[in-house]
Amino acid sequence: MKFIQSVQNEKVKEWKKLTAKKGRDKAGQFIVEGFHLVEEALKKDYVSVLIVDEHIEIPHGWNVDNQEIYHVSSAVAKALAETETTQGIFAICDQKQLDASSYSRVLLLDGVQDPGNIGTIIRTADAAGVELIVCGNGCVDVYNGKSLRSTQGSIFHIPVIKGDLQEWIPKLQAQGITVYGTSLQDARDYREVELSERYALVMGNEGNGVSAVVLQQCNQNLYIPILGEAESLNVTVATGILLYQFCK
Amino acid sequence: MKFIQSVQNEKVKEWKKLTAKKGRDKAGQFIVEGFHLVEEALKKDYVSVLIVDEHIEIPHGWNVDNQEIYHVSSAVAKALAETETTQGIFAICDQKQLDASSYSRVLLLDGVQDPGNIGTIIRTADAAGVELIVCGNGCVDVYNGKSLRSTQGSIFHIPVIKGDLQEWIPKLQAQGITVYGTSLQDARDYREVELSERYALVMGNEGNGVSAVVLQQCNQNLYIPILGEAESLNVTVATGILLYQFCK
């Protein structure tokens, strides 16, 4: 059994770096916290290292055979925690890399900036049966603590990768996938379009929507009509409405 | 022109009380902040008092004839502000009281606890053409600063009132309105139900959903199928999906 007492330990410093985007990008890893997220990560074979507060017991049902485990002092657990009251259990996870191959239901995100929004969008896409999510260049890093918590584990249910949307769109189209943008201009009411079963949907930035250059690449742009006086819908809500339209 | 220099002024103390639920309940008023929300409040005749930082100019297009206006020092503006960088403009607004009379599209909220969620739900309901929102007893106060900001002005577009859902449901039913609950048990897939044009939809608490006693009063309970591995949908997203289903 490996045990770490001190917050000055080199391993702890290395793990702590994963709470910042720079450290995550460099290592190709991220850190999750709490029983629910760690359990989902284990089930889906994302976990490189499991870290447990010495006062915490690993739940009986978990399969941690052949799993590298570190027990740590509460001081170390607190140092790693991004929440105020930590559950004292963490996993170091590997970021996945994937190619465009065989996905029929894809969500592309163009400049989604709010960590809570991107997390909730991932959770919503999981519920709606999406098979792949590609986060374009302008998106907030999905591996930050708040985003990961907002996914409620869905980050481990479907592959979520970073990529250049302008490269992905033609690749998807070449495989017979119809790519739908979202826009208030030059777009059709989503309820009046016969949607393709093999689709990619592009959702955009909270304030500015999908960028013009990406919209031009799409096969068809959609909008959700506003029936009252609201100026717009929240991007997570709009994503849910559109993705469930593809489920009919 | 009325001017207040000191944060110790009695008016300022009175207004400041509206940043807490107790003060709002007692006065039957609430306070909003920022150009966008204040403008919406003015348009819809909600404003009792307009409060403006002495360094801020009231926009030319605004109709503030016959409007009681206080100019205040920046110290007073900062004392009233609930945001870190205030725009220095505030409105004291009256809470509306309404009866059940003639609404055809109603949203009932049962124990929605998160201020951001309830605000986004109000915004979504506005977009989807809802005419009345009733917040049941267990809901967070919609007049707190975070909720108001999350509505992005929709709080002034449709009446949002507090009420006892167990009293409202039979009243609405007596007017021929079909009341739909949301539940994972004893419920039908929302896509397979022929929805009534005159409806009330009940959305529930983030963790526990709609309470059992309320579900029993509903005419029909609905659920949104989960196609992937997510355990549930965020309540704001679920509200959007269901409300837009009524718009078909």
What can you tell me about this protein's structure?
The structure is a homodimer of 248-residue chains. The first copy, chain A, has 248 residues and is of the alpha/beta class. The first copy, chain A, has nine helices and twelve strands. In chain A, the strands form two sheets. Chain A has a seven-stranded parallel sheet. In chain A, helix 5 runs parallel beside helix 6 (145-151) and helix 5 (115-127) packs parallel to helix 9. Chain A is elongated, with a radius of gyration of 20 Å. Chains A and B meet through helix 5 and helix 9 of A and helix 5 and helix 9 of B.
Series of H and E elements of chain A: EHHEHEEHEEHEHEHEEEHEH
Q: Strand content of the residues of chain A, in percent?
A: 15-25%
Q: Which shape of chain A, going by the Cα principal axes?
A: elongated
- Please report the distance between the alpha carbons of the first and last residues of chain A: 52 Å
Q: Count every beta strand of chain A, where a strand is a DSSP E run of 2 or more residues.
A: 12
Stretches of chain A where pLDDT is under 50 for at least 5 consecutive residues are none
Radius of gyration of chain A: 20 Å
